Amino acid sequence: MSSKSVSGNNTCEAIIRIENDVIKHNPDLVTVLFGANDAAFHKIIDLETYKKNLYKITHLIKPEKTILITPAPVDEKVQFARTNEVLLKYALVVKQVADLTGSHFIDFFSKMISLEDYLNKLKELKMMVFILGKMVMIFW
To answer: Which of 47, 74, 94, 140 could join 79 in a cystine, given CB atoms 3.0 to 4.6 angstroms apart?
Structure first.
């Protein structure tokens, strides 16, 4: 089990490093969680490119080994680089790619934002990602 997440990476950067960081290790399962950096205003990746990148990442890993996870919502009072309205659009693309490829899918965005106290839950998010990283290889 290994985490291959790189803070600040988007799907374009992920494609560059996927072979060395993930594929060569022949993992049984890979969680793929991108979107927050792709949706950031200062380095935005348009939705069509994002979709193509996720599709490529999924096929390089193999759909049956891929767990696609939507990006989490943000606290818009402290996070100025992206909004939940924009992140929702990226989350919907993740669902489309999962449906097209037959990959496993976790709708993290909808689950989190539907919680009454989701802003408090966001504070716990980093710990959850750390725990996930100990269970399966994360490519993020």
So the answer is: 74
Task: Quickly list H helices, 1-140.
Answer: 11-21, 47-61, 84-101, 108-113, 118-135
Q: Which two tokens stand for residue 44?
A: 């935005």
Helices (H) and strands (E) in the chain, counts: 5, 4
Residue 51, SS3 per DSSP: helix
Q: Hunting for tokens 């929702």 — which residue is that? A: 88
How many whole angstroms separate alpha carbon 20 and alpha carbon 70? 24
70 and 95 in contact (C-beta within 8 Å)? yes
Amino acid at 113: I
pLDDT in tens, the chain (140 residues): 677 778 889 999 999 999 999 999 999 999 999 999 999 999 899 999 999 999 999 999 999 999 999 999 999 988 889 999 999 999 999 999 999 999 999 999 999 999 888 888 877 765 555 444 444 444 44
Report the distance separating Cα 58 and Cα 4, nearest Å: 15
Coil, helix or strand at residue 42? helix
